[in-house]
Amino acid sequence: MRIVLVGVGKMGEAVLAGIVSARGPQDVLVVNRRRERDEELRERYGVTPAALDEAAARADVVVLAVKPKDITGQLDAMRESLRPEAVVVSLAAGLPLEVMQRHLAEGQPVVRVMPNTPSLVGQGMSAVSAGQGVSKEQLELVTDLMITCGEVVVVPESQQDAVTAVSGSGPAYLFAVAEAMAEAGVQLGLPREVATRLANQTIKGAGVMLVESGTHPSILRENVTSPGGTTAQALKVLDERAVRAAFSAAMTACHDTSAAMARAQLEQD
Ligand SMILES: NC(=O)C1=CN([C@@H]2O[C@H](COP(=O)(O)OP(=O)(O)OC[C@H]3O[C@@H](n4cnc5c(N)ncnc54)[C@H](O)[C@@H]3O)[C@@H](O)[C@H]2O)C=CC1
Ligand SMILES: O=C(O)[C@@H]1CCC=N1
Fold first, then answer.
1. What number of other Cβ atoms are within 10 A of residue 30's Cβ?
2. Which stretches make up the Pyrroline-5-carboxylate reductase dimerisation domain (predicted)?
3. Which of 7, 140, 241, 242 has its C-alpha lying 20 to 30 A from 51's C-alpha?
4. CB 2: neighbour CB atoms within 10 A?
């Protein structure tokens, strides 16, 4: 199966890393604007750079990882080169399947995926939505591809804005928590290196426990919170500062931005 990745920036490279570590670099073509980026990726992953039309003509799957505003231009540019059975996948936030379909030949299979950057280390979370007329086999092709980057869930397209708020943008919230915890440790007198190591490994350990223990997060939190102890005082302050409500408001803002981007794409197109 020949895979073409178009616009290999931060997200594209994370997906590329997953694909190459599971399947090897043969059969992976990359299309970039800058030649230096092509050479960097060839050196780092052993993949082959190519021009868009030439790569599209040979593709079984094309993965578009350019910015949402650049997707339709790329679809227009590859439309005539694509084989009818080639599956076109977009990783773009707020870019509806309907817009993709408008820019491709009738019946060209399209799939929308919301991945996240932990794909770079094989711990990604991808949510996949199939466009009209995509066969079970074609959807499986895409889920099999994304599973090389981590976990995969199939969702209706109507849920993609909410998915973006939870898992697409989610790593950024946790990186911000990591920064905040390390900084607070420094304020409490720990050397920066030690504070950073403690914060990072704590987030990793809690994450692995969440996924592997199958225990509800409330129970895991209670297990840390000794009556009258230290954790209860820390959680009280987080509640007083409305951290839960802040997460809800932040994720609503993320969801609404994704939905507004999709509306604008549909209207402007
Ligand atoms: N960064 C993230 O955590 C996530 C990003 N996404 C989506 O992934 C897409 C890419 O985002 P990032 O990687 O963050 O942006 P980025 O700016 O790092 O990557 C975009 C890449 O596309 C390249 N590009 C632009 N025009 C091109 C063209 N005409 N031909 C070939 N390459 C071209 C740029 O040079 C750049 O390398 C966006 O649509 C975003 O919504 C989705 C989920 C998570
Ligand atoms: O911030 C963004 O728009 C992209 C989509 C999800 C994560 N990063």
1. 27
2. 157-260
3. 140
4. 14
H/E stretch holding 145 reads helix 136-146
**How many angstroms separate the Cα of 15 from the Cα of each of 119, 207, 211?**
6, 21, 21
Tell me 252's DSSP state. Answer: H
Tell me the pLDDT tens digit for each residue of 111-161. Answer: 999 999 999 999 999 999 999 989 999 999 999 999 999 999 999 999 999
Of 10, 11, 119, the one to substitute when testing ligand 2's pocket (max ligand atoms within 8 A of C-beta) is 11
Pocket around ligand 1 at a 6 A CB cut-off: 6-12, 31-33, 65-68, 70, 91-93, 114-117, 168
What does the DSSP 8-state code read for residue 60?
A: S
Q: What 3-state class would DSSP assign to 99?
A: helix
pLDDT at residue number 269:
86
Q: State the closest ligand 1 atom to the C-alpha of 77, by its place in the atom list counted from 1.
A: 29
Instruction: Report how far residue 131's alpha carbon sits from residue 134's, in angstroms, rounded to the nearest whole number.
Output: 6
**Tens of pLDDT, residues 3-50:** 999 999 999 999 999 999 999 999 999 999 999 999 999 999 999 999
Two tokens, residue 32: 């970039």
pTM for the full model? 0.97
- Write the burial class of residue 166 (CB in 10 Å: 0-12 exposed, 13-18 middle, 19+ buried): middle
Assess: ipTM above 0.95.
yes
Contact residues of ligand 2, CB 6 A cut-off: 93, 164, 168-169
